């Protein structure tokens, strides 16, 4: 039977890993959105759809560049934390 402390510690680690994995994509979307918003404010071009394509492109590029990091982080979490809990070790 799993102890409550082990459960909450595993949940905390899982949430932290989810945060760390999503951080590069969220930062890319934030920086791109603020940059495009600044350009729109400076040029008085207020088109709502103008931010969508650059933001999507930035997210795709950052996702492609950080896939290796994301995969390694998740695999190591499952290998070091989750699988031993499932096995009972």
From TrEMBL:
Transmembrane regions: 15-38, 50-70
Membrane topology: Multi-pass membrane protein
A single Gene Ontology CC term: plasma membrane
GO biological process, any: protein secretion
Compartmental location: Cell membrane
Stored InterPro entries: Bac_export_3
Keywords: Cell membrane, Cell projection, Cilium, Flagellum, Membrane, Transmembrane, Transmembrane helix
Pfam hit, one: Bac_export_3
PANTHER family noted in UniProt: FLAGELLAR BIOSYNTHETIC PROTEIN FLIQ
Family membership noted in the UniProt record: Belongs to the FliQ/MopD/SpaQ family.
UniProt protein name: Flagellar biosynthetic protein FliQ
Biological source species: Sulfitobacter undariae
Biological classification of the source: Bacteria, Pseudomonadati, Pseudomonadota, Alphaproteobacteria, Rhodobacterales
